[in-house]
Write a structure and sequence with these properties.
Shape: globular
Number of helices: 10
Bound molecules: threonylcarbamoyladenylate, magnesium ion
Order of helices and strands: EHEEHEEHEHEHEHEEEHEHEEHEH
Strand content: 15-25%
Helix content: 25-40%
Number of strands: 15
Distance between the termini: 32 Å
Largest sheet: 11 strands, mixed
Oligomer: single chain
Structural class: alpha/beta
């Protein structure tokens, strides 16, 4: 199949382009589109055949359920039941935006969307292109990140193309995404609510609205010592092609050691004074968590494209605001 790329204005998407993309979705096709977090790969969430194409295109394991994207709060009932006080308060504060709520699944939602489970993950995205597309389609969109399964999520159309060219029908290219990391996934069927995946909304921001929640440790090692509450949270995930190693020190000795063995190394550091060494691509990362999130995947994609053999990343501090970045780095560096 040929993957068509349509440029759209990120703030005021052109009607014609959105109409074309919606027609592809109505014909059970797959359309990649920008959200405020990462690019998603959308299909009609209520159509088993359309959704099964997502799994085929990504090579996604069937036990990993999808997030359903709806246009407005009144549409949540199309896929979920059990709207409660947590959901009311969180939706009021964070929707549209990068928070995904796990609710009870409504009868009629295909098993393939929920991995056969009793719950469904729902969010209302904030990106104008995502919103226009869902509205024009006229049905909820199941949309995982638009990458091959277990690889780094895409933050621009070129990343999508690199992984999925020829495997999907269309990409709406609305430029780079602002958020850079995925949404926070929170189970509000439990009391207290349970954090299933750290994301752009920090636990502290959620707790300011609904009080204490159950947190994961964020070490990237759940599934070893603790139960795996979210079926999709595989310990190895979000991986670049190059082997990634994380350090809690400056990383300099590891970088030098790798260089001595002749490997080409990409180095994500916070230190602007790290000087150039032959064979090393130094990437000085921002010390602000939101700016870091915006850049992390883009830098991993760029280092892969540059053909480095190894990536060494200095771990960000063990603080609430850094939980999502630490989680992704931890999973991306889990030994094969
Ligand atoms: O920012 C995002 O969330 C992006 C954009 C495109 O919206 N989407 C995304 O989807 O990251 P995906 O498929 O890459 O990750 C979905 C996560 C997985 O960890 C999955 O296990 C979890 O959500 N999930 C989905 N449905 C669930 C459910 N019913 N119960 C628990 N976890 C669920
Ligand atoms: Mg993903």
């Amino acid at each position: 199949m040929r993957t068509e790329i349509l440029r759209v204005h990120p703030d005021c998407p052109e009607r014609e382009a959105i109409a074309q993309a919606a027609a592809v979705l109505r014909a059970r096709g797959l359309v990649a589109f920008p959200t405020e977090t990462v690019y998603g790969l959308g299909a009609n969430a209520l159509d088993v055949e359309a959704v099964s194409r997502i799994f085929a295109a990504k090579g996604r394991p069937i036990h990993n359920p999808l997030i359903v994207h709806v246009h407005r709060k009144d549409d949540v009932h199309l896929v979920a039941t059990g709207w409660n006080e947590y959901a009311t308060r969180l939706a009021e504060r964070f929707w549209p935006g990068p928070l995904t709520l796990v609710l009870s699944r409504r009868n009629g939602v295909p098993d393939i969307v929920t991995a056969g489970g009793p719950t469904v993950a729902v969010r209302i995205p904030a990106h104008p292109v995502a919103r226009a597309l869902i509205e024009a389609a006229g049905f909820p969109l199941a949309a995982p990140s638009a990458n091959l399964s277990s690889m780094v999520s895409p933050t621009c159309a070129e990343h999508v193309l690199r992984g999925l060219d020829g495997r999907i029908d269309m990409i709406l290219d609305g430029g780079p995404t602002a958020g850079g990391l995925e949404s926070t996934v929170l189970d509000v069927t439990a009391s207290p609510a349970r954090l299933l995946r750290p994301g752009l909304v920090s636990p502290g921001e959620i707790e300011a609205v609904i009080g204490p929640i159950l947190r994961l440790d964020g070490s990237g090692e759940d599934g070893v010592s603790s139960p795996r509450p979210s079926p999709g949270m595989m310990s190895r995930h979000y991986t670049p092609r190059a082997v990634l190693e994380c350090t809690i020190d400056s990383g300099r000795s590891l970088v030098e050691e790798l260089c001595r063995t002749g490997l080409r190394v990409g180095w994500l550091t916070f230190d602007p004074d790290e000087h150039f060494t032959p064979g090393v691509t130094v990437v000085v990362m921002p010390r602000d968590p939101a700016e870091y999130a915006t850049r992390l995947y883009a830098e991993l994609h760029a280092l892969d494209a540059a053909g480095v053999d190894r990536i060494v990343a200095v771990f960000p501090p063990d603080e609430d605001q850094w939980l999502a970045a630490r989680d992704r780095l931890g999973r991306a560096s889990t030994p094969r």
